[in-house]
Amino acid sequence: MKPRAKSERHFSSLYSALCQMTSDKWIDSSFSSVIINRRNFYLELAMLSFDSQTHYLNRLKNNGLKQTPRRQAIIQLFLDSGAHLTPEEVWQKLHQQFEKCGLPSVYRNLESLVECGILTRIQATDRKKHYGLCSVGHQHHHHHITCVKCGKVDEITDCPLAHTAEIHGYRVISHLFQVNGICGNCLER
What we know:
- It is built from 6 helices and 9 strands.
- It is α+β, with helices and mostly antiparallel strands.
- Mean pLDDT is 76; it is low at 21-50.
């Protein structure tokens, strides 16, 4: 058996890595095709109609939740607003679209979206519940930074407590960490 050429080994490694990525769902199911060109060693990920809502709807599906019209509307509402919202604000917007939409139903849907990592709970100074869109989900340990002026929510991947096992004699089992600030857009205004 003749040894494989260096280029063939590289292609084989690349192909194996791609298969691993797709089986681990690192490549979102919104990608319609994956093309590997042996001659030029490049990957082309052809994407059809990938948008943010598709990303979140796929996350619903991957967590075993139905893609109901209300859940779709809630996700779109957060995408359109770009900020955190209270359940009452979500209810007011949904009530315009859905005649029969109660506040308890909104709370249940918001909590379901938190559980699957689409939304995150935001601590605000008004003592009301707030929710914001979470693009990372439960895939990686992260926290959030919230703009106190416009309500924009972003992820923070650097956590000062990520590898802390003990603090003042307490064994750390979990933690919540949120940073409040003023985003770049609001600073420019």
